[in-house]
Amino acid sequence: MKNKNFKIAVFNVFKHKRRTFFNAMTFAINMFALVLLLGMIRGQYNMMIDKTIDLQVGHLKIYKKGYVEEKKRMPLEINISNPDAVIADVMKLHHVKGAAKHIVTTGTLSSGSKKTGMMFYGIDMAKEKSVTTAFNKVSGTALSDGGGEILIGNKLSRLMSVEPGAMLMIYARTKDNANNLVDAEINGVYTAGFEFMEKSIAIVPFDYASWFLSMDGAATEIKIALDDKKNTGAVKQGIQKILSEKYPDLIVRDWIEEAPEIIYAIQMDMVTYGIIFAILLFLAFFIIVNTLTISVFERTAEIGTLRAIGMQKDDIRKMFLTEGAVLGLIGVILGGLLVLPLVYYMNVHGIDIASTGVGDIGVPFEPVMKSINRPVDWLVSGIICMVSAALGAWFPAGNAAKTDIINALKRGVR
Predict the structure, then answer these.
(1) Model pLDDT, residue 409
(2) What is the pLDDT of residue 5?
(3) Which of 122, 140, 222, 289 is a Cys-bridge partner for 103, taking CB atoms 3.0 to 4.6 Å apart?
């Protein structure tokens, strides 16, 4: 009987080709949208996290105890007095790709005719390139180990109308809170692909920053890059062990602690995407309920006949549930195949978003947004569509099973 019910259900699905086409397309569109959205969500957030790690926070950062609580004012007096020794110990750990010391402070940058508030980073360029790609594209020349040089962002260069070779004045307060004003020549202009960074961060050699800020070789932070962010937890534990044994006045923080706004943004966006998924689920549910309800009404006499020749209520219910499942399965297969070309394009080429102004926001993005799809996306999307089909078919199937045989036969077979 089970095999017979299945054959009847499949026959009814393909008997009404027009209705089947539109219902299957509903599920296909849902499948298409779900697979595409899952890939775009994963691609977007992986890109955002990876760029934030690369350009801003690193996988891990080391600070002097007490610095994080005062971080907004960037206190130079709360510093790491022996950064080179710490870096040497950290570099011995497995999965550590690079580590670089920074002096971070705020001040004013002036060209004479224009001035602006800035963040200044004192860096060792050779080591810095092991922890970030921010300075891979420089017009002019990169920083040397000498003094009197500065590297500014492309956005700031355009805003202040200055080019490599121009002289700028740097005003900042030293570790001892004394005012200091020094000259620096623009060696080069970096393009990081993150305009917020390019207009607000200027780079000077570490030794030069140490001199004019009276830091005596101390650093305010150490940025650490790993071979993969999946290893952050294990490396953090290794660093914590080193710090507790040799540098008890220092702490280490991971990228999640350093960039909580990223996690918050993802959580907020997940609410939005959850609403989109719910709408798609409801759409599929509503369509299948509507279709099978009409089908039950139109086939009342047929149901009565089947009941009269011995088919049980449970068999009627299963027949309509099978019809809903077959419609869902057709849509899942169709949608899963139709989305393949677009998934390939989004994963390989992506969409150019450079002209949308994303570089001006406080979170770094790649100029090209790509999707990251995995086989599990088709499985998850297919299950969601099949569940919506089953739920949508449940109520009409129940109504069909409750059909009164005598009243149904009175309507005549159509």
Answers:
(1) 64
(2) 65
(3) 122
Q: What is the residue whose two structure tokens read 């849902």? A: 30
Tokens (6 digits) for 184: 């620096």
Distances (CA, A) of 45 to 265, 371, 414: 10, 10, 55
Nearest-angstrom CA–CA distance, 97 and 91 = 8
Contact 77, 175 (CB under 8 A): yes
Asked whether 253 and 53 are in contact (CB, 8 A), the reply is: no
**For 21-41, how does the pLDDT look when each residue is reduced to its tens digit (9 = 90+)?**
877 888 888 889 889 988 988
What is the distance between the alpha carbons of residues 178 and 34, in angstroms, rounded to a whole number?
Answer: 59
Helix (H), strand (E) at residue 98: strand 96-110
SS3 171: strand
**pLDDT tens readout for residues 148-195:** 899 999 999 999 999 999 999 999 999 999 999 999 999 999 998 888
Whole-number Å distance between alpha carbons of 60 and 269: 25
Q: Find out whether 400 and 303 touch, Cβ atoms under 8 Å.
A: yes
CB 127 within 8 Å of CB 98: yes
Nearest residue to 360 (alpha-carbon basis) of 200, 203, 202:
200
Single-letter amino acid, residue 353: I
pTM of the model: 0.77
pLDDT tens by residue, 287-298 = 777 776 776 676
